[in-house]
Amino acid sequence: MSEREVDQALVERAQAGDRRAFDLLVLKYQQRIAALISRYLRDSAEVLDVTQEAFLKAYRALPGFRGESAFYTWIYRIAINTVKNYMVAQSRRPPGDDVEAEVAEQMDMGAALRDCATPEREALTDEIANTVQDALNALPDDLRAAIMFREIDGMSYEEIATAMECPIGTVRSRIFRAREAIDKRLRPLLEG
Amino acid sequence: MTTSTSDQRYLAALIDGEPGPGGFEAAIDAVERDAALRARFERGILIGQLLRAEPAMPAARAVSAGVAAALASEPVVMRPSKRQSSGQSSGRSSPINRPAVGLAIAASLVAVAVMVGPGLMTGSGLEPSLESSPIAQSDPAAVQASAALSESMTRRESVVPSEPMVERWALDEPVGSTALDALLVDHRERASASGLTGFIPYAAVVGPSGVR
Membrane-crossing residues (chain B) (predicted)? Predict the structure, then answer.
């Protein structure tokens, strides 16, 4: 299943009245949408408010979403419109250099986003990134290779199993354990 | 923290799109039910973003709670079923068959045009003229067809009482001209500006009497 198919399955459940399926979509995309909105707004509280508003608008518009585009492309457009409307309402001029949603999905916007980040936000982001990198380096070779094949190279479990000459179940277990090890180091930062 | 095989499958399904033998729907059900599993799902997504050096905003983890709280007071959205959206449900569909209404209106307009048209053209210089038509001059068949049409229209005028219409619409008479002007003004000021569509609402506000 591709990421788009996973999202579409969640969307269809949400369209059928399963609100918790929509919650999973929010959990999945809240970071990316907030990062997108932080391109336009510097204040963290405003970024969170507008991000929340974008998801609420998406939920209300969900019956009309027919899956002709990826869910992320759709929510991306809603988020852009929401933040622009917010800025107009605040008598602020929204920037006109939008990145097309399809392009944004492909490109790394990290550099552009970091340009707009406040020092505090940037420091925390750097600390989190360093922690993840340290945790990755501390992993046993087989776990590190498995998680990198998956997250960096985007390989399927079957492809990883072939590359690592092991069963798919072993790949699943290695990726799971790699995430758990990274999560163990990350959680104090996120929840502290 | 549990590390059961089922948890592995559920997270693999939702984070990586690799549902395995347990199936995708079971994974969604499990993650929806289990708050701890949901939190691990969220952090798993975040870990992937950080490994790919994608932008992250840790404070955004509060958004999901805010969205859930806001939606708690709203009705659950439901996509209408195909049957409903195609207008076949008994509850929402109009008892009027729209295509049939359209056809009936079109037929009425044709009937009005047939009755009123010859009257409008009488004395206005708009009568079909066989002599002035280049087609008629060059094609004897067309001359015959036009003559038949003209005869048919004349016969129809003799059957339909056309006197009031001729009086109202004769353009060489001031009354008719005024009525037509009023109709055009009505049309421009009311019908087009109000966005009226269809013959019946149009006729309700625009009439040939010149009375507004």
Answer: 100-121
Long-range contact list for B169-176, CB < 8 A, 24+ apart? B169/B116, B169/B119, B169/B120, B169/B208, B170/B119, B170/B122, B170/B123, B170/B124, B171/B120, B171/B123, B171/B124, B172/B123, B172/B124
Q: Which of B40, B50, B67 sits opposite A52 (nearest CB)?
A: B67
Same domain, B139 and B186: yes
Distance in angstroms (rounded) separating the CA atoms of residues B204 and B212 = 11
Supply the CATH number for residue A127's domain: 1.10.10.10
Determine which of A2, A4, A13, A23 to mutate to test the interface with B (most B C-beta atoms within 10 Å): A23
Answer whether B78 sits within 8 Å of A13, measured CB to CB: no
In a domain? residue B168: yes
C-alpha–C-alpha distance, residues B103 and A89, integer Å: 48
- Candidates B16, B54, B57; nearest CB to A38: B57
Nearest CA in chain B to A157: B18
Residues of A in contact with B47 (CB under 8 A): 132, 151, 179, 182-183, 186
- Helix (H) or strand (E) holding A69, with range, is none
Its domain, for residue A108, covers 3-115
B3/A152 Cβ within 8 A = no
> pTM for this one?
0.62
Please report, rounded to a whole number, the percentage of residues in chain A having pLDDT higher than 90.
Answer: 66
Q: What is the pLDDT of residues B84-116, one digit of tens each?
A: 544 444 434 444 455 566 677 777 777 777 776
Kindly provide the ipTM of the predicted complex, given to two decimals: 0.85
Residue contact A172–B51, C-beta within 8 A: no
The single residue listed with the structure tokens 């094949």 is: A149
Cβ–Cβ gap A32/B41 under 8 Å? no
Give the total residue count for chain B: 212
